[in-house]
Model the fold of this input.
Amino acid sequence: MEGRLRILLLSALCMPCLWSAAALAAEDSTDQVAEQQVAEQQVIQPQIDRREVGIDEIDSEDFEVSVFGGLFSAEDFGTNAVIGARVAYHVTEGIFFEATYGRSTTTETSYERLSGGAPLLTDEERILSYYNVSLGYNLLPGETFVSRNWAFRSALYVIGGAGSTTFAGDDRFTINFGVGYRFLATDWLAIHLDMRDHVFDIDLLGDNKTVHNLETTAGLSIFF
Done:
């Protein structure tokens, strides 16, 4: 009986302490929740209106076919119109192979016009045509912004190769090199601007010499 009384007395003495501890724990928890809510309210939540920019990329296919036109400056035979076609295969994002065929009709030389003698070439021999196979490298691939909301893929590339030029009744080994700019209007359509030099030897006017024939063209191409 005496033992039970002791237990009751101890319980009565400890109960206030337990209640106080529980109250303090509840108060601490409430304070932590309040502090967290205040901190969350103080954090700045920026409202950013992000604009979407659609960028056209080269189609998943690697072949490119293009037609072009421009001016071909045949040394000693004037600057005349040129037309042609190209087929390219893109090996990687930076490297591509290209086969080209072009055709132009040259005019009389200053010697022919001033001498008043017989023409040096027949009408058929004045037709200049060439073909070549070249290796190109996209030197500066990037993006061109037409407006704030429109961006297009573009690339500045260098190219060089070898082939043959048929002119003045003979086929002449030709080296070509130059630079170009490709602008992708859509994922399958591109615009090209090219400047190239076609170098070959010719002995038509007496002395065998190396001539440089500058070509400037613009064209359209499709990817498939």
Observations:
- The chain is about 20% helix and 55% strand.
- The beta strands are 54-56, 63-73, 79-90, 95-105, 127-145, 150-167, 170-184, 189-202, 209-223.
- The chain has a mean pLDDT of 82.
- The first strand starts at residue 54 and ends at 56.
